[in-house]
């Protein structure tokens, strides 16, 4: 078993997330991936998809679930940009798609 970590509206903070990862055995993290453009304005409060991958790695989370995207148009990026960019970042950083889940309506997933 392990802990669940919910990251609400948050910019990326590698020092904090690495510290949390060292102190806790995190099984599942819910990490926001949307509402990140323009960066000059959103960076302190909303991480982008690549920063979400860094957060997953820093937390040493066994699984992560993407959150905070594709419900409302909240920022300047295209409506469906966040999951597309997350997939690219996951590929770039060798994160298995079964370890960082992008939920879809009607889709279910199991954790071992």
Quick recap:
The chain is α/β, with parallel strands linked by helices and 112 residues long. It is 33% helix and 16% strand.
Q: Can you describe what's shown?
A:
It comes from Rickettsia asembonensis. It holds the Pfam family Lactamase_B_2. Keywords: Hydrolase. This protein is of the alpha/beta class. It has one domain: Ribonuclease Z/Hydroxyacylglutathione hydrolase-like (Metallo-beta-lactamase, Chain A), CATH 3.60.15. A four-stranded parallel sheet has the order 1-2-3-4, covered by helices on one side. The longest helix is centred in the C-terminal third of the chain and has 12 residues. The N and C termini lie close together (10 Å). 33% of the residues are buried. The mean pLDDT is 93.
Query: What's the gyration radius in Å?
Result: 13 Å
Number of helices: 4
Q: Tell me roughly what share of residues is in helical segments.
A: 25-40%
Coarse morphology: globular
Overall pLDDT metric: 93
What is the makeup of the main sheet? Answer: 4 strands, parallel
Which strand-content bin applies to the residues? 15-25%
- Reported by name, the CATH topology is Metallo-beta-lactamase, Chain A
- CATH architecture classification: 4-Layer Sandwich
CATH superfamily: Ribonuclease Z/Hydroxyacylglutathione hydrolase-like
Coarse structural class? alpha/beta
- CATH class assignment: Alpha Beta
Number of discrete domains: 1
How far apart lie the N and C ends?
A: 10 Å
Low-pLDDT ranges: none
Spatially, the strands of the biggest sheet line up as 1-2-3-4
Number of strands: 4
In N-to-C order, the SSE pattern is: EHEHHEHE
């Amino acid at each position: 078993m392990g802990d669940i970590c919910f990251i609400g509206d948050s910019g990326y903070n590698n020092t904090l997330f690495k510290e949390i990862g060292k102190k806790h055995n995190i099984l599942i993290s819910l990490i926001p991936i949307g509402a990140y453009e323009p960066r000059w304005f959103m960076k302190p409060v909303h991480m982008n998809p690549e920063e979400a991958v860094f957060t997953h790695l820093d937390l040493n989370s066994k699984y992560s679930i993407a959150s905070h995207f594709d419900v409302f148009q909240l920022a300047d990026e295209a409506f469906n940009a966040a999951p597309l960019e997350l997939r690219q970042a996951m590929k770039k950083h060798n994160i298995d798609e079964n370890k960082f889940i992008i939920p879809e309506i009607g889709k279910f997933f199991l954790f071992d």
